Amino acid sequence: MSYFKDKTIWITGASSGIGEALVRQLASQKVRLILSARNENDLRRVQRENGLSDNSCLILPLDLSDSSSMGKIAAEAIDRFGEVDILINNGGVSQRSFARDTPLELDRKIMEVNYFGTVALTKSILPHMIRRRSGQIVVISSVSGKFGFYLRSAYAASKHALHGFFETLRMELHKDNISVLIVCPGRIATAISQHALTASGEANNRSDANQRIGMDVNECAARILQGISKGKEEIFVGKPKEHMALLMKRFFPSLFSRLIRNQKAE
Fold it and tell me: In terms of pTM, does the model score above 0.85?
């Protein structure tokens, strides 16, 4: 963890789940943290519970659905600490509705938050990193960025899109000494399924059975930080069964397709 000493790290989606766990892991390190999410009160709670002082922590609320605000917010982040060494794009929203029942407006909303908001924030911080010829960009994708699954058509589409953008960005920024890590979590024990949007646009308000028995969120955060410190380009974080699914999808796609159709839709 000494890798992160004296670095400024910006985490979106920092008020819960993987983002909050990343804050917990980093709170004991000599780092400067910028915490972002929509709800300022939740961010203040995370700051307070982790004993973060105002000198080392900036609470910077943002709404990923408002791409036009990202330039101003990025400027505020840079102005506060003078630099941003690592941007962890963790914020986003999931889905629980069949494609045939999902209004196009909801598809657009999920894409706006998960893809366009993440891209807009990244583009806003890029000139700063390029000038410094230093920086790391992390994007939290999903196994749904590798293959689709029931009730997640828009969510999977947004995660697939992130892979296309950030894999290209990685190549383009190599000469500027800026690295890009794509993280693909499997089932992690968070409240993501409860906050997922249904066809009506309302929160799902229920936890998937497999989500509840997923990998511990603190272990997930630790593996992500390990991936950052080792300069990885892409990592999978989850249980062995999910890793096996990724391998099967790659090497035995027809068999994978038959097996995945028999999984429970939840």
Answer: yes
